[in-house]
Amino acid sequence: MTEKLYEQDSMLKSCLATVLSCAEDKRGYAVVLDRTVFFPEGGGQLSDRGTLGGVKMTYAAQRGSEVVHYGERPLPVGAQVEAVLDWQARLDHMQQHAGEHILSHAVWKLFGANNIGFHMGERLVTIDLDKELTAAELEQAEDYANRQIWEDKPITISYLPHTELSALVMRKKNEKLTGTLRIVTVADGDICTCCGTHPLRTGMIGLIRINRFDKHKDGIRVEFLCGRWALEDARRKNEYVWQAGRLLSMKPEGVPQGLRKLQEEVTELNERLKAQSAKLYEFLAPQLLAQAAGDEGGIKYVAAAQEDCSAADAKLLLNKLLADGRTVAAVVYRSGERINFVLGSGEQTQADCRSLCRKAAARPVPPDRLRLYGRQRRLRPHPREIRRCGLRQGDGFPFQRAGQRSRHGRAEHGNHPSRKRPRHPHGL
Fold it and tell me: Containing domain of residue 14, as a range?
């Protein structure tokens, strides 16, 4: 049995202890002491860490009545060692755990919302509430919780038999608990059963900041920070605002207005660019059609290569090429490091775009395409297209999507990621 010193004194940073057993384990070396200051992971709280006789201890776990400490090196059985906490980690855990108690009490007291689950990470804490709250209501709860901190109220530990639990005004009661229960009480505030470590006074929490909240089942999930992490988060976000202000040449309080104005300007420029692109393709499409080869039935075949073109622009050009209904066209374009294509046929043609893709895969790459799109001469198709289109493994056209219709006819669309260097499509 291990004496758990942290249950009575959470501020104890070290102790002398005797090694009762030591055995190699998948986590390292499992050491059992006769007494410990290390809190084992449980009750939603993370494990303490520190050193045992100078040996790094990374994790502690409850095993029956014993606390098992996992260290990097073995310790001799019977030896007396000093167990020393990583105090900053312990303080972080206490701030977060006590902060969870106080914020949960705030939403319960103010709005009748119950904490039905929580998770405590190294920095962030989340609580799941059984009802939805607005941003304004959460702000009220945040203010209430921080007033509990600023008033520096005492946090006390007591032990009661489960039969006396009904006499306490608690936000959450677990009727399944029996025997002697450990009660954590914030003066004039939260009362709950808890096995974790907590600071002696609420002032040690420092600060509670709600970071975000999202819809979760029938309620919401609230993410917040406490203590040092809340301060660092506020400091970092304040720096982001100042940087944005310097870029926009305005004070921090003017950043939202400046960003809205910038967004409006970008939207206007995009509309103007779209209009100019439409005019360009009105001019380019007849030229491409005039140079295109045709068959005995008057069907024209067009292949156009575009650099730094958007998907919308590529489709716009394709639609203009297919407008007369008697054209089969492909637009191949580069978007960043990706090579994409859109292939279509007019309504008056009998062309099968998928069949054209298969045929294109077997044709050599023209030299001008090698210069424009890269040096690889063989591309492998996407596995889903192999299965869907019945292609052979060696056929190699780089499309990933097919079967979409253009506005003026049938179209096949595709793209593939460029790996070491941009890939090129095979010529039509």
Answer: 3-85
